[in-house]
Amino acid sequence: MSWETVIGLEIHAQLSTKSKLFSGGSTGFGAEPNTHVDLIDMGLPGVLPVANKEAFLKAIRFGLATNAVINQTSTFDRKNYFYPDLPKGYQITQMALPIVGEGSIKIEVDGVEKIINITRAHLEEDAGKSIHDLFEGETGVDLNRAGTPLLEIVSEPEISNAKEAVAYFKAIRQLVTFLDICDGNMAQGSMRCDVNVSIKKEGEEKLGTRAEIKNINSFKFIERAINHEVERQIRIIESGGSVVQETRLYDSVKNETRSMRSKEEANDYRYFPCPDLLPVVITDEELNNIRSNLPELPEQKEKRYVTDNSLDIAEAKIIASSKTMANMFEEACLKTDDSKLVANWLVGDVSALLNKDGIDIDESKLTPNNFAKMVERISDDTISGKIAKSVLEEVWDSGNDVDEIIQNKGLVQIQDESLLEEIGQKIIDANPKQVEAFKNGKDRLFGFFVGQVMKETQGKASPKSVNEILRKLLS
Amino acid sequence: MSIQYKTIAELRSMLDSKAISSKEIVEETYKLIDENNDLNAFITLNKEAAIAKSIEIENSPVKSALHGIPIAQKDLFCTKNLRTTCGSNILSNFIPPYSATVIENLENAGCISVGKTNMDEFAMGSSNETSFFGGVRNPWGQNLVPGGSSGGSASAVAAGLVPAATGTDTGGSIRQPASLCGITGLKPTYGRISRWGMIAFASSLDQAGPMARTAEDCAIMLNEMCSHDAKDTTSLSEDVPNFTKDLDSSIKGLKIGIVKEFDMSQLDTDVVSVFEESKKHYESLGAEFIEVSLPNISLSVPAYYVVAPAECSSNLSRFDGVKFGHRSKDPINLEELYIKTRSEGFGDEVKRRILIGSYVLSAGFYDAYYKKAQQVRRLIKNDFDSAFKKVDVIMSPTTRGAAFETGSKGSDPIQMYLEDLFTIPANLAGLPAMSLPNGMVNNKPIGLQLIGNFLDEKKILQVAHSFQKSTDWHLKTPKGTKLS
Lengths: 475, 484
Fold this sequence. Notes:
The complex is a heterodimer of chains A (475) and B (484). With 475 residues, chain A is α+β, with helices and mostly antiparallel strands.
């Protein structure tokens, strides 16, 4: 029997605001436990929340970029449940009237494009963190993260397999980083998702019972968790059982999902409008202001790279795939007229290094500034392309400054023509047979001479000068 | 010189003429509190800091009419470094690191907080019998309750220990004890006074207000208590008027509304005749009475007992033994920590309301209860809006009767809930309302309620003041009528 998979994603993107959603507490990552916490974040008796407008402006950017409905009046609700890292005993979220309504985003898998509809995107506050392994027999609570603004982006159940789910998550991540509303850092938990998975017989209308897999924070794990969960559900149904609606947890070590709580054990969150917060109203003027200041989005960049920089579409897509890569390209293009050269480096050597290390450009030590400097040194003939490869590798490993590497390793290209002439003459004198053969028409031997000169100069000779000098000497 | 039963205005002129110093007033206050310890009006005293402040401000410029005046604070307002219990075991050890905006406003005006007054636990009650710290006695009788929830504040003012106190009113918690203790108390328009630092019971209904001997003193207090506060988004941004200005305005031609649907046959006949006499008095002052209809008013109590418990069930979730307040000893796991902490920490009435609130918000019941109650609330607000097109203020008795005996309503919560029959509508509609003494029933004081239009505290203060200028009910004390 053939099965179809139905997947919906709830992505939590931490908005990069300076202060928390309802307090002046800092949102900085990695501070000492309970130091980025004010009275409101602690949920002290008598404190009241005040909504952070910046979070709304960021959420609206996302809405506009996904062609979504913007609810200019949106409200907050309380979601009630007990947990030690939830200081008030409720989370303030947007249940009834979210800031961002229906929208959509385009994804691409193996060259095929697909539109995924987005049900809604709403603002809510994050909880703190429970720390179970630091105190013997006790649990610690760190409230630094409590109250951090999250944008929860809920997709329609229109994703058909793990690959599409990853492509969707990547597209959302690409978008929020381009919009500068979230740093997209998955290792620090700035983006994570819950995945709803169900299966149904091929062609069947009715959706199967779904399981929700909680809190996944890497592309790799999304793919694995979904594939594992689909196999589990098929196994259950094919052996005559039925899937129960429940929340499951993905264990990345054992590569399996396991039950966290069933539907019966699920909380009744007793949602109701938060009486402490008035509806937040966004004026037409504010909305238009955000619209006219939207940053350039990946698709627009791709088009511009093709028309203005003469890249081919494949190159443009790779470069516009991440904000850092696009920044590298644009910064480097300021230093040279040869944007094709810049693209070659990014699509070629840089991408190869990324693949080799299996990392994302944001995780590498290469910065847009350093990359641009390297390109600049190539185009002003300080170093040759070949030397640049070794410089790039060095930067890749150490993150050191390009100019420093060139200086310290003495990699500056030899421009001294009389020195090059001397070396060229020496090579010619030492290889009389090849000279004769060349002069008898074996043109491709020219490369042999160039190679010899480069070898003699440890690659530091300017290839252009070497060419000119050898042509002269061999004529 | 005794300062017992003195008003703020009287103490002010004594201070201004140097007849007495602030330090002497404060010391005398503590003596009075001590002598009347059996009232159990206070949970925590602030003696050392209060005396220090009275000395400190002696030579500083007078900032307001409250400069150097002792005030009692309801133990629901957070006071920095001073224990704040909300009348509950669960907060019996809670010392806030910050002060409520109301407290800051009053203290910045120079008033001296002498202590925290007893109250029904988390302001849930109408007799002050639900306090973890024991009931409060009404100075008008040995076994009489002072009303609630601001019972400690009402008792302290009625016994003349302090000229004024702060209270809070969610369904009548200022007006009902004011009525039962023979003092004047005002609940402002919702949003007039910041809720920052007020421990929430029902956020959409809670409002702080003054309790004092006279309308004039309430106006003096209000001048300092009100402010727009950016820390409370439900705080109103409208300008705060000078409430003491124009207090003496004539009420000739004033249109007073009498609610058709308030069923007087349910009341003590004595209460009705006191009310009728007050009407006659107002007529003699030049006011005219007009019947108004509030068709949905009978739904007030049911709507209130859905909305208030719902909000309370959520507001009180933070008392879980994790971060502050009482924590049960040696729970075996997290669930037991919650269950034991909250079972030990909360009293029966609080538990009852948390249960009701959780029920009305639960899946499948929300639309039938909470949503419906909010719709009722809107209808009641609309009823008032149309009534205020015809009249300037609305008048009714504050309570169904005078103070009752301790324990007499304890077993039947519904009887207790009906105590707030006349006071609840103003909370649901967010309107200002006050109670002032207008007579005696069996040697016990009762009060008259005035409900004003949105933001029109000034009007009800004027109407109350004109009554007090020409009657002496507000001068009555348990020890006899005070000479004015």
